[in-house]
Amino acid sequence: MATALWIANVEVTDAEAYGRYAKGAGPAIAAHGGVFLARGGRHVQLEGRDRSRNVVARFPSVEAAVACYNSPEYQAALDHARGASVRDLVVVEEAE
């Protein structure tokens, strides 16, 4: 089974609330086999919308990433990001 990348492009509008999201999201992602490859940091926007925060995590599969997203633990964390950020999130299966 191919691994998958969880790619989030985020503009944080409320740093305090988003910090609460990050505190809960990290353990939920790890519990589903997710490993962070990038969390913020330097980036160069070549096309499309520029968002100040970009996050990439690798999961064992697309199904594991989607299960993480739908888990009660991640959804509880996500409640803090709603209204505190503008986000795009996609899960992409890696090429073998």
From TrEMBL:
Query: For the DUF1330 domain, which residue ranges apply?
Result: 3-94
What the entry lists under Gene3D superfamilies is as follows: 3.30.70.100
Q: What is this protein called?
A: DUF1330 domain-containing protein
Provenance organism? Cereibacter sphaeroides (strain ATCC 17023 / DSM 158 / JCM 6121 / CCUG 31486 / LMG 2827 / NBRC 12203 / NCIMB 8253 / ATH 2.4.1.)
